[in-house]
Design brief:
Length: 66
């Protein structure tokens, strides 16, 4: 698999951190940010072994207030 750089969007739900990769659609979790990212990396690598993607476009990310 080629070296890819993906985005991890992380938020806390109760006592766990949930990490999502918007480029691929994988989601994982962990009790620390580091664990959530490591689990997301593993989930994404396993997913891409089964469902390779030819090209990844970076999502446009911004913030807004309401």
């Amino acid at each position: 698999m080629p070296a890819w750089t993906f985005t991890a969007v992380i938020h806390k739900e109760d006592d766990i951190y949930v990490a999502e990769c918007p480029e691929v659609g994988t989601v994982s979790q962990g009790y620390t940010v580091e664990e959530a990212i490591a689990n997301l990396k593993e989930a994404t690598e396993l997913y891409l072994e089964e469902f390779p993607i030819p090209q990844v476009s970076r999502p446009l990310m911004t913030t807004f207030a309401s």
